[in-house]
Predict the 3D structure of the following.
Amino acid sequence: MVARRASDDNGIMNTPSDSLKTPSPRLTLYAGFVSLGLATGLPALGFGIAGLLWPWAISCVVVGMLWGFVLYRNVEWMANFGLCYFFGMTTFGFWRGVGSGWMLAGAVAALTAWDLDHFIQRLRDAPNIEHAQVLEQQHLRRICIVNGIGGVLAGVALIIRLHLHFGVMFLLGLIAIAALTRALTFLRRAIH
């Protein structure tokens, strides 16, 4: 069977398969580069401000630039390596007494860049996705909500110091997990 060619309003000929192709995830790619820039810049800035740690700041920039370079090329292992590297660097920064805010924001940005990198790869691997732009917008909206809630909770955890017994902390952790699960379920239903 021969595919019929149909012209659109501009006179450009399209085959039926052209209309089913998944568009490029430009908005997600842009958000991925922004979060990667933050994941690179915030820990590097924190290390730089702390002084004597410039080699660590430079290594953050080098790894961030490498990750950004291969983000266009669909290299699957780089996102995993980058996430592990930046989590290691932020952990090292916490240990060395670098500002907690810089390290926390860098870790959240690295996790966001990792998630968006994998989302871009999944969109590229699936050739025909209906309503890809809607899917992309929903994913970005969800990640913004999770980053906002997680950032506020982590910021509060950095500011407030409580001395509690392990049992009380464990119970509060279980309650927080249950509440977060319930909130995500509610958001998932509200969005759909």
